[in-house]
Specification:
Length: 243
């Protein structure tokens, strides 16, 4: 499991890292922990946001009381499904998490007894592990020529479409979300599970699991997405859908 910690206090950095490592050893878990000591470090690690399964974020960083919320917002924009936990002494700030629409997994107080602190962290790890097991980690991880890509559950991905920008692809996924990445449809089709994504036209790959309806000229996906269907692609889609 890969974890990003945002904490600017040296003592608390050591505390949370050691607690996580102790839990990992006792549970035979392999944990990869990155620690961002300031916002500059966050910028450095942001290229890996798609790969972290858990974020443990302090709220006040370098005197800015809501910096943790702002970082969580950045994370959510790039990865809507990951687990975010706030670790702070400022419990009075917790309602702000709702204002930022962050869907935090938990809030851990630094002031509580050590045993409770450890237990709460362990519970968060258990949750992430349970989610991974439930999804059976059927994730599609994609990047193009070493550039920033994505990691998403297959069942959340609806379609890929070429962008007007060169070598860019639009990724349509759950909750009406869209992100643009470097890549090519040919490369995506080659790296994904066989026949999970099928061409609707030369500029669009769609998930067979997301198709709701198909006419002679158009395919309709979940969440109301519509894409044109070419004559050749329609024959292929009909074969896959047994219609």
């Amino acid at each position: 499991m890969r974890i990003l910690v945002l904490e600017d206090d040296r003592v608390q950095q050591g505390r949370i890292e050691q607690t996580l490592l102790d839990i990992g050893r006792s549970r035979n878990l392999r944990l990869e922990i990155d620690i961002a000591k300031n916002y500059g470090d966050v910028e450095k690690y942001s290229q890996y946001f798609d790969n972290y399964q858990l974020y443990l974020l302090d709220l006040e960083i370098e005197g800015e009381r809501e910096r943790g919320f702002q970082v969580a917002q950045q994370v959510r924009e790039q990865d809507p499904f990951t687990s975010i936990v706030f670790v702070s002494t400022h419990s009075e700030a917790l309602p702000l998490a709702f204002r930022y629409h962050l869907s935090a997994l938990d809030f851990i107080s630094k002031d509580q007894p050590e045993a409770d602190y450890c237990h709460q962290l362990e519970r968060c790890l258990d949750y992430v592990l349970a989610v991974d097991k439930r999804e059976n980690m059927r994730l599609f991880t994609y990047s193009f020529e070493g550039r920033r890509g994505f990691t998403l559950p297959y069942h959340e991905i609806l379609a890929f479409e070429t962008s007007v920008e060169s070598h860019r692809i639009k990724v349509y996924y759950a909750n009406h979300s869209i992100k643009t990445i470097y890549g090519s449809l040919k490369d995506i089709a080659a790296k994904a599970e066989k026949d999970y994504f099928v061409y609707a036209n030369r500029n669009t790959l769609v998930s067979l699991q997301a198709i709701e309806e198909m006419t002679a000229t158009e395919v309709t996906l979940l969440e109301g997405l519509h894409f044109p269907v070419s004559r050749t692609a329609r024959r292929t889609l009909k074969k896959h859908l047994n219609v």
